[in-house]
Amino acid sequence: MIRLKHLVTLCLLLCVALPVFAAPAPRYDLFEEASGLLEQGSPLEAAALFRRILESSTDREDRARALLFLSVLYSHNLNLPDTAVACLEQIETTYPDTSVIIDARFALGAVTYRNGQFAKAVTHFDRFIELYPDHMRSSSARAWLREAEALSGEDKQIDVQDKAMAQLPDKVRVLIRHRADKVTLGKAGEPMAVLRDGSPLFEGVGPVTVTPGEEGLVVNGVVAGNLTLTIGPGAKRPRVDGHAYRGVVTLWPDEDGISVVNTLPVEEYLYGVLPKEMSHLWPEEALKAQAIASRSYTYHTLLNRKDHPRFDLEASTAFQVYGGADAETPETTAPVDTTNGRYLAYQGLPIIACFHANSGGMTESADAVWGAALPYLQGVKDSFSSLAPDACWTGEIDADSMVKRLWEKGYRPGGIISLETSEPSPSGRNGRVVISTSRGRLELTGNEFRLAMGPEVIKSARFSVTRKKRHFIFEGCGYGHGVGMSQWGARKMAASGFTYDTILHHYYKNVSLVTIDKEGVR
């Protein structure tokens, strides 16, 4: 088995490697935006931006740097070490003259080691030491080399599943408020306690008002300072702004107000997710499929964000919608309990189980939307979604509003001259949207354009467009990015007699259903 300290070191080494080289900034400021998306827990969206740099930048340093970022993302965030190695090898063959090459050669040894390819790791670390005997990382390379040599002569396989799942936190930290200017805790007449770093600050009955102040948080007019406050478990159910939550609620001052995190067991978190993501009136097998998809997504996020100092997920569509205890219903709690601990795995690890409202007749691959080729997120025919009400739609926006929305998203177009779509994917979604403006040409992916215009205008990247004077009219099918499980499709499949496992295997390919319980993975 690989020593845990070296697995932790791998992530640190790869992440620390990124800012070492002195590559010039790209013509567009996407590295910072992509890094921010990774920090927020959105690896697929980050991959899309790194891909855009790779495809569009004229600077060799930028392209090599994007490949290095992608290698870290594939290895650490998406659990696809072979794809990470391919990115690093591309740097070797195409960009050996860039400042990134030293980091790439070291990372080749680290990634192959992590993947259990010890003989290859020996080769890569040997070469690194030979090429850079006096480099600051040579001592680390020698330590990794000794480990790899000790393991390469034996028939050892990394038990990826057990190793990873053993590190899975048993609780999830959900960001339920961010930059709030006021937070009300508790309920009138209900006993509660507010703790400051574990010591009682307030004990009595609610409500309690918390506001940001110059010296930190202010609780009922009393300055608490820049400290973490906790409500519960003294309260029957911690309440935040009138809404009840299971577990414990923690507050701290952030840069523009107050942040609030709800910490609770994963299964109890799912009690508050399922009714916000799927109607409690839908068939039970569809609800079971949604419970497993949401649990898989949660497990994957927890494994990749367990070292984040504050939270794991947000209670929004950026992650999964979470409504706390108030959202729970018996109809949605039962499927969570029935599938307790069950998740979708690829090569032993939880998948990013993306889902969306309606595929419009065919789902999309993750590669087509974000440039991240995930073997389990492929496009599949989905006639069940075509049967859903409002599967197709019409949207309209005028040219001035289009310009305004593009500016709000950070683009800088002038007046709209023309708009064209191109590069349709096998599902019929637009790969590219090209907008000619008075300030030049702007090119976006179909998904980027959809998000820029807003889902109330363009529900899916599968659309055609016509122009009538100053107005653009979009006609399309589907709702959402189209990747993974279609919720309406799952509903129709369940109503037709399909079980939850059949539904899941229809939308997610090359996966297995695994259960984790108190005894471990089985």
From TrEMBL:
Gene Ontology biological process terms, A to Z: sporulation resulting in formation of a cellular spore
Domain Sporulation stage II protein D amidase enhancer LytB N-terminal span(s) in chain numbering: 255-346
Keyword terms of this UniProt record: Signal, TPR repeat
Gene3D superfamilies the UniProt entry points to: Tetratricopeptide repeat domain
Signal sequence coordinates: 1-22
Gene Ontology cellular component annotations, sorted alphabetically: outer membrane-bounded periplasmic space
Keyword Cell inner membrane: no
Residue ranges of TPR repeats: 102-135
Protein name, as recorded: Stage II sporulation protein D
